[in-house]
Amino acid sequence: MSLLEFSHVSFTRENRALVNDLSLSIEAGDFLSIVGPSGSGKSTLLRLCCHLISPTEGTIRFHGQDLMRFNPMELRKQISYCFQMPYLFGDTVRNNLEYPFSLRNKPVDPDRLEELFAAFQMSTSNLEKEIQHLSGGEKQRIALMRSIVFQPEILLLDEVTSALDVANTQIVEKVIEALNQAGITILWITHNPEQSRKYANKILTIDTGEIRSLEAIR
Amino acid sequence: MNGSAAIQTSSLLIASSLVLVTLFFSYWQKLKLEKETLISVIRAVIQLIAVGYVLNYVFGVKNPLFTTFLLLFMTFNAAYNAAKRGRTIRHGLAISFFSILIGALVTLTVLLLSKTIRYEPYQMIPIGGMIISNAMVALGLCYKQLTADFKTKREEVETKLALGADIHASSIDIIRDSIKTGMLPTIDSAKTLGIVSLPGMMTGLILAGASPLEAIKYQLMVTFMLLSTTAIASFIACSLAYRGFFNARKQVK
């Protein structure tokens, strides 16, 4: 049984098919790189995965069960989505990183936060930093940290390195690679073919909401 | 009222010449507001005379059921108008009616229990009217803010949803923002009472011959009741209306 399975999925908005009759199987542990021109339906695909939108036709199954049968909140804790434009809320970094704990009614685990800061090569002193004083790269790293405070089964990444410099990109790539090695399934939208080839085991090319190719490279 | 300074009809007619000043300015400055000014003045005269007769009759009917019916009728009308301001709000009429009803009910109950007012039509109808219309304006502002925020802050809401938050947790900042927007005009006007303006009710009482201290007591009561009704109605309306921006699968529509 595939971890995530799309069967004949379409998503139409205002008479425009953003995803059109798409069928796809994603296995546990996959590192799927999603490529395609702007407006080809890549982000829509990720939003469908984490149930921020529902298919207008077709079915998506997670562990063999229709997504529509899951509690959306529980599902989104398992299938975490990191947006292209990181949105940080509250006043400080701490507000953002403690949010996943409060959603689960769990006490904040300072060791876990320390671990995350170390992985992203940032100092824990950033916890008290006001979000308006963060650089674009820092914001993206914090948003990513927030998505993985509790490890999801599937991590959806929407061009998370597109606004980062080389050094920051390398840091993020390393973390994502480690997450995949730890068993987390990754679906990563990227415009960087080199990045795709280096980390992914499958490359999905989509255009006008349809699959152009699915290439297994490892 | 003691020392009441009743206005003679002839004096009022002379005062009506002040409308000519407005017409003169409109004509002089080519504002093209002459027709509209005349219509508004004529409407005001007709409406107020009519309402004067109606109130005269209403205040004479001492049946509490009739008073209750009138208050509910006013609430429904206010809810209808508030709902029109928030066309995008799902179940806008029902939400507005319920919010204004509870806001007015709580406030009026406190006023009745504290014996500040009695369940007499000449007290309940004007006071009910004041708080109900104030709540209506507040709800209109709440809905406007709620609709605008769900458009501009969609990213924020979806980011929180994507982290596994429920719709209430994802919208809490928008809900707070909207409640504040509904309440602020009433709070602001309370802040500036007596400094920027002498409110209409107090002015009216003083003009009618009441002592300023007596008028102030009434004005304070009005201020308190407007604050509480606005707060309750805005809170209930926003806490119910935000749900309409999501579907059953907890997705932003």
From TrEMBL, chain A:
UniProt-listed PANTHER family: ABC TRANSPORTER I FAMILY MEMBER 17, IRON EXPORT ATP-BINDING PROTEIN FETA-RELATED
Keywords of the record: ATP-binding, Cell inner membrane, Cell membrane, Membrane, Nucleotide-binding, Translocase, Transport
Residue span(s) of domain ABC transporter: 4-217
Domain of life where this protein originates: Bacteria
Keyword Cell inner membrane: yes
Alphabetical list of InterPro entries matching this protein: AAA+_ATPase (IPR003593), ABC_transporter-like_ATP-bd (IPR003439), ABC_transpr_CbiO/EcfA_su (IPR015856), P-loop_NTPase (IPR027417)
Pfam name, any one: ABC_tran
This protein's name: Putative ABC transport system ATP-binding protein
Lineage: Bacteria, Bacillati, Bacillota, Bacilli, Bacillales
GO CC annotations, alphabetized: membrane
Native species: Sporolactobacillus nakayamae
GO molecular function, one term: transmembrane transporter activity
Automatic annotation (TrEMBL), chain B:
Chain ranges passing through the membrane: 6-28, 40-59, 65-83, 95-113, 125-143, 193-212, 218-242
Alphabetized InterPro entries for the sequence: UPF0014_fam
Pfam families: UPF0014 (PF03649)
Membrane topology label: Multi-pass membrane protein
Residues making up the signal peptide according to the UniProt record: none
GO terms for cellular component: plasma membrane
Compartments in which it is found: Membrane
The keyword GTP-binding is assigned to this record: no
Keywords, in A-Z order: Membrane, Transmembrane, Transmembrane helix
Family: Belongs to the UPF0014 family.
The protein, known as: Putative ABC transport system permease protein
Species this chain originates from: Sporolactobacillus nakayamae
